[in-house]
Specification:
Strand order of the largest sheet: 1-4-5-6-7-8-9-10-11
Radius of gyration: 27 Å
Structural class: mainly beta
Number of strands: 11
Largest sheet: 9 strands, antiparallel
Order of helices and strands: EEEEEEEEEEE
Oligomer: single chain
Length: 209
């Protein structure tokens, strides 16, 4: 299964700028375009009736601009304000499922990669001022393994383990401020479920994060 998409708008409509005093002026919503395109792909494979594999991926490239401040009354005809953000995203998930008579095993791994650039620049005929110039790189990795075992129609056990990695690097070259952090997260879970009566169930859960 494949899906691709694209959208774009110049977004440069005319309007009456009432923030220009003492007399409002006709203006154009400039530097306000936005657009994105992407593709998604899904692949499913069943080698046997009780085995299933799947891979899903998604890529997107998006950009957007924020228009000039409406109250800017500078007489410089060459003035311009560039306020733009661009970001790229790649996500992928692979999963495997095994279905037995009493046992179900599920394994999933996913990755999320994002890159973001943001800049805010004010230009006139004489100068150029860099207000913000930042970039961010983000990596997230997810892993999940779960097993369910039915001893009988009334007793069930579940065991689950998770591991996640987060790596984020962000900096603003104008101020020199930013951070670079890596975080690991793990989780273990175990549960027992007993159907005592048709409308009553006893459950015991243990979790360690």
């Amino acid at each position: 299964k494949t899906r691709a998409y694209h959208s774009y708008s110049k977004n440069d409509y005319p309007f009456l700028n009432k923030y220009i005093l003492p007399h409002p002026e006709e203006d154009i919503n400039s530097n306000a375009e936005f657009g994105k395109y992407g593709i998604m792909q899904e692949v499913y494979f069943r080698p046997k009736n009780n085995h299933q594999l799947s891979i899903r991926g998604w890529f997107q490239d998006a950009n957007r601009s924020i228009p000039t401040v409406l109250s800017d009354e500078s007489s410089d005809e060459l003035k311009a304000r560039e306020n733009r953000q661009t970001d790229e995203t790649v996500k992928a998930v692979a999963s495997y499922d095994f279905y037995g008579q009493k046992f179900h095993l599920s394994a999933k791994s996913g990755i999320d990669v994002q890159h973001l650039d943001y800049k805010h620049i004010y230009k006139t005929s004489q100068t150029q001022t860099d207000i913000v110039k930042s970039y961010s790189d983000m990596l997230s990795v997810y892993n999940n393994l779960q097993g369910d075992y039915d001893i009988s129609d009334r007793i069930k056990f579940t065991v689950q383990g998770r591991y996640s990695l987060f790596d984020i690097n962000s900096i603003d070259s104008v101020t020199g401020l930013g951070y670079d952090k890596i975080e690991h997260q793990t989780s273990l879970f175990g549960g027992a479920y007993i159907q005592l009566l048709p409308n009553a169930q006893l459950s015991v859960n243990l979790r360690n994060d």
